[in-house]
Structures are given as structure tokens and as C-alpha cells.
Amino acid sequence: MPAPSIIFPADPLNPRRPDPHFAWEARLLRELGGEHHLVDHDALLAGLPDEAVRRVPPGSGPLWYRGWMLPSARYAEFAAALTARGGNLLTSAPGYAAAHELPGWYGVFEGATPPSVWIPSTGGAAPGPRELAEAAARLGGSGPAIVKDYVKSRKHEWHEACYVPELADLSAVCRVVGRFVELQGEFLAGGVVLRRYEEFERAGCAADGKSNGTSDGPDGPDDAADGPDGRAVEARVWWLDGRPVLVGPHPDSPRRHVEPDLTEVPALVRRLGCRFVTTDLASRADGSGWRVVEVGDGQVSDLPHGIDASGLLASLIAS
Ligand SMILES: Nc1ncnc2c1ncn2[C@@H]1O[C@H](COP(=O)(O)OP(=O)(O)O)[C@@H](O)[C@H]1O
Ligand SMILES: [Mg+2]
Question: Is the shortest distance between the CB of 68 and ligand 1 below 6 Å?
Fold first, then answer.
């Protein structure tokens, strides 16, 4: 089988070049002897997949994608348009949805990730109080929680649209979920997810009392990201065919040194059955171990700035 090529989004201003966000990956790929093609991301989002893949040569064979997140339905159109041109995206549309959306991976990771419930979206409106009360009850009915959709949170609006201090306070649940749905607008993916909040290590409050931070000053970018909003310091692990091909920091805190315990994760990743995925891991504040905060499709997970991705890209084109 020929070596896979990688498809990157084209620069909207210069369609013959990779989008500036992915240019360094494309350059590194070329240095490693790999080949890339370009896709028009805006056309994909607009539901024009044939137009989007116009620059991918016919008969391109096995393909990986490294680009912006796509809704699962758009990814399915993308995969079908490539198939029609003799290309083969190595992550199938069902595989993409399984890793990309929480309900797709939750069943496999249950027990290793915070308990979660979800309410499928019914056209844009926020779930009502009765549905939310029922969902909160399924989650145990009390204690703090996190709100997100099947794919993303609004972690930057932590108090307004992400963190629920007490599930038993139904008006607070309704307020945070309502604001989350309003801010997500047409970009709400799938539905609303409620997750039990767990206390993770944050910058400067490692369980052993030592800071796990780098030498950033108090105003450094990492501290800004991990600050008073309660967000954890995470490791992002990149898995190809069940093996960790890159273990590094999360893009939100790219200079953080992380050493996650991976004892239990490989079996879960293999059971999920997707070839190329990421897992974001956080360490419990009480030191009782690592938890899977999130699973993602490796094709659309962001790579931390400045990380050495040569092993990852070399593995992709050797797979
Ligand atoms: N169940 C949870 N308990 C504690 N913190 C959480 C929980 N879920 C998410 N977080 C925090 O919120 C952040 C955003 O949640 P995440 O599920 O990773 O959404 P996103 O896709 O927006 O990154 C995480 O990086 C973590 O710091
Ligand atoms: Mg995340």
C-alpha cells in the first residue's frame, strides 16, 4: 500500500498554500518525505464537498486529514467526496463521530472519565427545567458540574456558561445551560452534556505541594489559562493504532511538563477502535490518579505550539 498523504486546509487568502495555522505541520511533513494535499474548509462547511476537494488529485489513495474541526455530518460528506475521487480517508465517518463526540466515546471510557449525561438538541432551544432536573438527577442530583456540548465547552466563560456550582440548584443549572446554548448558537454540536465536576491539579497546586509549572511568571500565558476559573493542567496523548505516538502538554498550557500515567488508557483506546485519536488527561487534585477529561479525533486535535511533532507525522505516513 502506498504511504498515506495528509490533507490540510488551504489558506483562504491563498488557496495554493496551507492555512497559516497548519503551515508548520505541512513543512515538517515535507521534510519527512511526506506529501500533502489541500482542502477548502469553507466549502466543506458550506456543504459543498466536491468543490472542497477539487485540489486533491484523483486516485490519491490512503489519506489522513489534519485540520479544523468539522461537524460529523460534514466529515461524512468530505469522506464520501474523497472516495468518489479514488481517495480513502483512513478514519471513517462513523469512526470520526465516535472519537469527536462525547456520546460516541463515553461508553468505552465510563469509569475513567467524569460521570456524564446528555440531552440531544431539539433545534436550537435550550433544554427546559424538567429535562435539566431529570438530567441532574441522573448525575446524582447534587454537587458541582460542567456544561458542554457533544464536542466543546465554553471554558473561557467559566462562571457564565461552563461551571455549575451546585446541581441541586435548578435555577443555576438552567441559567448556565441557557447561557451556554445561547452563546453556542448555531454552532451547538449535538446537544447539551452535563458532567460531574472533579477537582484536578491546577497550575501551582500539585498534590505533592510542588508547583508542576514551568518558570512562567504570574502573568505568563499558562497562568492566564489555568487561572481562577478552575481549569486543570492537562496532558494530551496522541494514539495511533493503540500506541501513544506523542505524549505532551495540552495546547492551552504548551510549556507545561506532564507525565501522565497511561496504565489503563491503551486498552480503552483499542476498545474504541479508532486508529488515530487523542486523550486529554488530568491528574486528580488528591493525587489518586489520572482521569480522561476528553477524547478527540486526532485529525482535528490541536497540536501545542512549539512541540516536536516529527514522530507523530512520521508515524502517520508510515501507517
Ligand atoms: N468534569 C470535569 N471536572 C473538572 N474540570 C473539568 C471537567 N470537565 C472539563 N473540565 C475543565 O474544563 C475544561 C474544558 O472542558 P473540555 O471537556 O476539555 O472541553 P473543551 O472541548 O472545550 O476543551 C477542561 O480543560 C478542564 O479544565
Ligand atoms: Mg478540552
Answer: no
The domain limits of the chain are 5-90, 115-196, 200-305
Please say whether the beta carbons of 41 and 52 come within 8 A: yes
Residues 87, 200: Cα–Cα separation, whole Å: 43
72: left (phi over 0), alpha (psi -120 to 50) or beta: alpha
pLDDT bracket for residue 203 (50, 70, 90): confident
Average pLDDT over residues 89-98: 98
Task: Tell me which ligand sits closest to the C-alpha of residue 236.
Answer: 2
Kindly state if the Cβ of 272 falls inside 6 Å of ligand 1.
no
Point out the ligand 1 atom lying closest to the alpha carbon of residue 280: 18
Ligand 1: does its nearest atom lie under 6 Å from the Cβ of 114? yes
Hey, which of 100, 113, 139, 146 would you mutate to test ligand 1's pocket, going by the most ligand atoms within 8 Å of its Cβ?
Answer: 146
**All cell numbers assigned to 177:** 445551560
For residue 250, give Cα distances in angstroms to 105, 228, 260, 293, 301: 19, 18, 12, 11, 10
283-307: average pLDDT: 95
Give the three cell numbers for residue 51. 468543490
Structure confidence by residue, pLDDT tens digits, 237-270: 999 999 999 999 999 888 888 899 999 999 999 9
Q: In terms of CATH architecture, what is 200-305?
A: 2-Layer Sandwich (3.30)
List, for residues 64-87, the tens digit of each pLDDT value: 999 999 999 999 999 999 999 999
Ligand index nearest the alpha carbon of residue 195: 1
Mutate to test the pocket of ligand 1, among 102, 109, 151, 153 (most ligand atoms within 8 A of CB): 153
| Cβ(191)–Cβ(181) below 8 Å | no
Average pLDDT over residues 287-307: 95
**Distance from C-alpha of 244 to C-alpha of 242, rounded to nearest angstrom:** 7
CATH code linked to domain 115-196: 3.30.1490
